[in-house]
Amino acid sequence: MAWRLGVDSGGTFCDVCLYDTDTKQFAIWKVSSTPDDPSRGILSGITEGLGTVSAGPRDVRFLGHGTTVGTNAVIQHKGALTGFITTDGFRDLLEIGRQKRPSLYDTQVDKPLTLVARHLRFEVPERIRHDGTIETALDEQVVREAARALGNAGVKAVAIGFLYAFVRPEHERRALEIVREELPDLFVCASHEVAPEFREYERFSTAVVNAYLGPVMEAYIARLGARLEQLGLPVAPRITQSNGGVISFDLARALPVRTVLSGPSTGVVAAQAIGQAIAMPNIITFDMGGTSTDVALLKDGACRLTGEAEVHGYPVKAPMLDIHTVGAGGGSLAHRDNGGLLKVGPQSCGAHPGPVCYDRGNLTPSTTDANVVLQTLNPEFLLGGRMPIRRDLALARIQALADELGMDVMETAQGIISVVTANMARAVRVISVQKGHDPRDYALMALGGAGPLHAVRLAQELDMKKVIVPLTPGVMCALGLLLTDLRADFSTTQIMLADADAAGRLGVLFAGLLDQAERWFTEEDVAPEDRSLRLSADMRYAGQNYELSIEMPGATAAVTAGIITTMVENFMTLHEAQYGFASRTDPVQFVTLRAEAVGRVEKASFVAHETAGPDASAAITGSREVWFRETKGFMPCPIYERDRLRSGNRITGPAIIEQMDATTVLPPGTVAEVEPHLNLIIDTGL
Fold it and tell me: Most-buried pick from 13, 193, 329, 399 (CB within 10 A)?
């Protein structure tokens, strides 16, 4: 047997998906995460998962790894103490930003915490102009003094960001050398290495996030690499990037910002594959784990790739799937705020101590505790019986919260679910309504261990008619690792008019990107027949502040006037489709040029099953009382075992469908049908 492994380590659980390339057999496993040292949980998951299929480490032919270490460090502000060295006069740029309020009419809204405190931000004399000429030479002595001051302040990482370093990076390079001489044991990075693109605020923010995560990811990868080596795996492990592809541990160590959406990105990759298999290409993914919820929109079977996104309020310039993350998960803690209202998240109890019902010392109720009290979640055990649950403890703590709020205990538990649902609905509207997409035109796909628990309620909140629950929803990110390719992205900013005279300069710049891609192919040992390249350019009308990505016909540096004309026409067509108008006379500019390199790998495949008919009674394993908001009380619910469901089976709510990695709730008035690939298609009753 030759097994391919996908391992996704979250804040609460570590998921393992195994695929035998010979028999096309799938297997899954799930263990608790170990936040103090995530590599321990990963090793346990791999060892136990291989044991369930009677395989050993030597049978592994591929290991892909996704992690939420970076995501959770940003959300919970648990990165390294970071310093910042910048051009004289730009010390406060990280705080000033674009001077945009996150919520225009909310006078009480809090801005995201600045990742570098002001006393750890140092200015140095240097100035490069927009055309690359040096106006002020770098004062190396001031850089050295700033590095020593940061060392004395106890920082663990330093980011360097100079104005126009993307045009001429030599000042940043020299500053990088000096800081590494003074602070050889610290993680140090420069903006031109991390995001060689224009817009200084976003570039500086990306460099800072990279430094903020650097020591965290360095320690994580070092421990994990050592454990995997001891295990005796015969292959080099890969780690997921935010763009849905995988890279080596060494590259992830140098550019941890590229992994900030490592965990959720492969869930989107898996959703794309399932959507294609079941002929439902328009999907909104809803990936709810223990610490956070990630949502993404797939139109015509593809998720939009963006060169810039906000991660919990921080701009990041890195190629990534258009995924929006909020601090709402199964471990999100519920409390009474200063105004006397119920609030849930973004703080999370994580895997340790975990929810109150885990009986590990936590006294603050979480979303999971609310589900246990309502009995939508099994009140006795999780993970197929491997994890005991204490409903009595959860009930007592929610009762205490209810007393604070002056509410009934069951209404409080339902209130926690309603607040979390509203938080998640706002996240979905960010990637749908705010970008011109009507959620009602899409199906909601539930991913993550907690996704199927809340999916129908969320869909009803958004007036969505269909919910898709995959066969293994709780390990979808791990499954996605078996469906993705090696991938790297390269970019450079050069603003120029899109006319025939630009062909020569454009060709030189694209040739440089292609050279970087070829070096990457060689480093990753990608066979020539498995390589593919895609070139594109961010384009805009002169004077605009936003760009559209336009693919260049053919992946070649031999740019002609005809190619430029075609790209301009394509830009105008897309501009009209997106904004409702396009000018045929205003000049168009090239802004940032990009190269996408993909190394194809063997992937898992899905198998369709014969229809067994609508009767699902053979899958019923019992029943229990469940509290529903429709009845404002408990009512008996049949419990179905997911593994026993067959293609064509039909289930009418209220009902609970349990499996090792997730629980699906069917409220009254809903209907679920098992399609040929054994995914659940739920009609929400709207």
Answer: 329
